[in-house]
């Protein structure tokens, strides 16, 4: 934490006891707290939020709501802004991201939500610790979100913002002392994926950024992805349903 943040800590902490502005987020739709409760008593509570474009809201939001977001404790679809702190972890995704919530929850069991940390697919430029891909989805601890809101946004220690969501959030989190943690598994395989699964198992040309941005060398084939993979990006609505079937319904 910087000296500037430390000096202003008392002022910022005082604001924690104030009511959060009701218009801090532009919320389009929120599911009720009827989502599947995890079986274990100590299972991490996860709030999921998805950035949704208004012109594709009904098709994409419905696909998300019908598939993997059912395993969140609560899901919110919105354009941009912030929410409360009654959960342990806060997952951000795009409207074309598929997330295997069981694998995310299993990974998070080993971490303290009151530590300033976030996870995702790690890019290496722009900050000393890099930042997480917005498309692959990233998950912030309760303390990371508190610092982002109270110090970074309301405390105005971050900015000016560029409009590139994942980069802006990554820079701000670095500024307020949140660690960009490594999300690879014990074998060094990625859990979060910024591309469609075809990019990893097909012969399509990879985007140019994969050589310069990937924190770990980009791999394809079976060495690309953890058996406990958490996310894929650029998933179209019908692929959401396909993944849902393959992961949760098909049996050998």
From TrEMBL:
<dbReference type="GO" id="GO:0016020">
    <property type="term" value="C:membrane"/>
</dbReference>
<feature type="domain" description="Fringe-like glycosyltransferase">
    <location>
        <begin position="86"/>
        <end position="176"/>
    </location>
</feature>
<protein>
    <recommendedName>
        <fullName>N-acetylgalactosaminide beta-1,3-galactosyltransferase</fullName>
        <ecNumber>2.4.1.122</ecNumber>
    </recommendedName>
</protein>
<comment type="pathway">
    <text>Protein modification; protein glycosylation.</text>
</comment>
<keyword id="KW-0472">Membrane</keyword>
<dbReference type="GO" id="GO:0000166">
    <property type="term" value="F:nucleotide binding"/>
</dbReference>
<keyword id="KW-0547">Nucleotide-binding</keyword>
<dbReference type="InterPro" id="IPR003378">
    <property type="entry name" value="Fringe-like_glycosylTrfase"/>
</dbReference>
<dbReference type="Pfam" id="PF02434">
    <property type="entry name" value="Fringe"/>
</dbReference>
<keyword id="KW-0808">Transferase</keyword>
<keyword id="KW-1133">Transmembrane helix</keyword>
<keyword id="KW-0328">Glycosyltransferase</keyword>
<keyword id="KW-0812">Transmembrane</keyword>
<dbReference type="InterPro" id="IPR026050">
    <property type="entry name" value="C1GALT1/C1GALT1_chp1"/>
</dbReference>
<keyword id="KW-0735">Signal-anchor</keyword>
<dbReference type="GO" id="GO:0016263">
    <property type="term" value="F:glycoprotein-N-acetylgalactosamine 3-beta-galactosyltransferase activity"/>
</dbReference>
<comment type="similarity">
    <text>Belongs to the glycosyltransferase 31 family. Beta3-Gal-T subfamily.</text>
</comment>
